[in-house]
Amino acid sequence: TRLLFQPRLLLTFLVLLALILTYRTRNDNGLALEDALYLTKNSLRELKQLYLPSKEQKLHHDAVEIDYPLGNAVNSFLPIDATIKYNTTERSGNITTNELRARYAAFSPILNHQVRGNFHILADGACSPVELGEEHTNKILIVMRGNCTFVEKVTNILGSNSKPLAVIVANDEPYRGLVTMFSNSFNQDGSLRLPVMFVSYESYQSLLAVESLDVVLTLSTASFGSWLSIMLSMILSPPLLILIFYLVVICGQNIKKRQASLLNSKLVRELTVYIFNNDHLIEANGLAHYLKVTGQTTNTPKDDSLVESPSTSTTSSTSHLNKIIINGIDIRESAQNLHVLTAPGDFYPSYKCSICLDKYTPLHSRVLILDCKHFYHERCLSNWLINFKRSCPLCNTVISAPNESLLAGQDRAFHYGSTDNDLEAQN
Ligand SMILES: [Zn+2]
Ligand SMILES: [Zn+2]
């Protein structure tokens, strides 16, 4: 069974790979996903303008339009990146655009548009109240990480009355990735109007190199594609892959189980239903014919006294001597014409169902008989075969092929009632 699952697993991985590839190509060509995101964002903003006009007006007071992210905790799991662009002029006169990656703090508002401005690198880490001259107002302020918390730095810079456009915190160690600055309490009400972002030590060095050149930085939010990449990387994380593997295995087992039970129910449907009548079983389809010939009705079950030899006392060695005669008809002799099975040659006599332990009602109980000559209530055996085991509950004989050999020699498509004359002759 383990070998059976391997092609399925391979297929699952191929499908995943195909999904990733289509996502990649889509992202490169049409940006359809991002368009959709942009439209969603726009419609949400319109909704906000309609129903929350006061808040929106406050937003427009600032030169920078600002969005608020989902919340501190969510943002630290799904970091949002920003880009810092600036132009430098080479010796040859060519202008090159440099692009640096930055990451928004979890408590930072997210920019809807670009922020442009000169920058100033603070001399100290802004761990104490910051004093800035007139020339440093309305600038993007860059501060080094370390010695105190991010929030303390931002608070000190905000207290300086220098009206910064943005605060960029630079890593103090080289070769480190971007960090999402996080705070449990800071800016919970969303009153911060200033984007706060983090850059690597290497980016800081690049900015330091152009500090004296009066370079204008352009800050903007990186495309939302990065969000999706992060989500994708989360989906492809090892624990999730293990979970997917587990689910695939479980699904495979369930499918196998369902197929087995489907096969079993097909098998059960192919079994002929009989009506119980003590020492003989009547084929359910031929019951009307049987009742007519033997002059019985289902309302008044045949009395036990009518049976000359009770089924419980018969043995296989003397079975041919015992006769079952109802209203003068020898059931054993006309068994084939009446579509009747007789005990103990055709089945082991029993007065109760071994599955539910209920007694059979003569001429009423519908039963199924197995190759091993054990018979049970139709409902009990169907349930057993479909849901539990494909074998006889009593003797454990496995049911393999459709039960066609039971009435061997008899024509299945036999037309009931066509032998009326023969039976009446016996009468
Ligand atoms: Zn039963
Ligand atoms: Zn059996």
Give the structure's gist in a few sentences.
The protein has 427 residues and is of the alpha+beta class.
Spatial gap, N to C terminus: 61 Å
Quickly give the CATH architecture of the largest domain: 3-Layer(bba) Sandwich
Largest sheet: 7 strands, mixed, barrel
Low-confidence stretches: 54-63, 301-320, 403-427
Number of strands: 16
State the helicity in percent bands. Answer: 25-40%
- Mean pLDDT reading: 76
Characteristic key phrases:
single chain, 427 residues, alpha+beta, Glucose Oxidase, domain 1, Herpes Virus-1, 7-stranded mixed beta barrel, 5-stranded antiparallel β-sheet, 12 helices, 17% strand, disordered C terminus, binds zinc ion, Znf_RING, RING-type domain-containing protein, PA_domain
Helix and strand topology:
Elements: H1 2-29, H2 32-51, H3 53-61, E1 66-67, H4 72-77, E2 81-89, E3 95-104, E4 110-111, E5 115-121, E6 140-144, H5 150-158, E7 166-170, E8 196-199, H6 201-209, E9 216-221, H7 225-235, H8 238-270, E10 273-277, E11 280-283, H9 287-294, E12 325-326, E13 329-330, H10 335-338, E14 340-342, E15 366-369, E16 375-377, H11 378-387, H12 420-426
Parallel strand pairs: 5-6, 6-7, 7-8
Antiparallel strand pairs: 1-4, 2-3, 2-9, 3-8, 5-9, 10-11, 10-15, 11-14, 12-13, 15-16
Helix pairs in contact: 1-8, 2-3, 8-11
One zinc ion binds at residues 370, 372, 374, 392, 394-395, 397.
